[in-house]
Amino acid sequence: MGGMLPDLEAKALAGDAEAQALLHFLRLLRRKEYQEARAYAEGFPEELRDRLLAGLSLLEEAPERLEDPLFAAEREVLLGVRAVREGRREEAEARFQKALALDPHHHRALSNLGNLYLERGELEAALDLYQRALKLAPEDPLIHENLAALYKKKGDLDRMVAHMKQATRLKMRPPVSLDPLTGKPQRRPLHRRIPLWVWVFLLTLLAYLLLKKP
Q: Is 119 exposed, middle or buried (0-12, 13-18, 19+ CB in 10 A)?
């Protein structure tokens, strides 16, 4: 992205609808919600839609071949994770740093970089990265799991347990959709927030009361 992200953000603040939509697309990439990003891309004009869909395909199949600047930060994160798995820690760190230079809001880049620092025993540096990631994505259970691992190493069992509980709660919650313009969680309609069994109980109770009326 380089200078692309600030340019998109400036256009979005000025009311440019396409820039706002592209920023939401990037939020989906940061959360690695590629299926949702693919569905969202279908709403763009044909030329841009094809570009986004092609980029998503390469992300999943061969990120090393992806040169589109819109996908640059996500590409570096994926290649960094691959490098970690293959034992190339220095390359991984460089890729996560590059991803953050391209997109400072990329919480997975922060979290993965924190994992490398935690692995090396640099606890305070890892904590700083995790906390920055948490501010960007408080609903990501993996960040809470990382913090739990860090606090375990620090011997802070109360905070370790608190973050493990939060991670479990977040994993059990249904997915939260984000507003495409603001990126903030959207409240689901009341009928979708209430569990089905509650509706059944209420309808049964209503039917009982109606039938009981003289």
A: exposed
What are the Cα distances from residue 56, in Å, to 28, 76, 122, 126, 147? 11, 14, 34, 30, 30
CB atoms within 10 A of CB 63: 18
Residue 106 DSSP SS3: coil
pTM: 0.79
CA distance 10 to 189: 32
Q: Which residues of 15-37 are buried (b: 16+ CB within 10 A; e: fewer)?
A: eeeebbbbbbbbbbbbbeeeebb
* Crossing angle of helices 107-119 and 123-136, rounded to 10°: 160
Q: From the first residue on, what is the mean pLDDT of each consecutive set of 10 residues in the chain (214 residues)?
A: 79 93 96 96 96 97 96 98 97 98 97 98 97 96 96 95 94 64 47 54 65 56
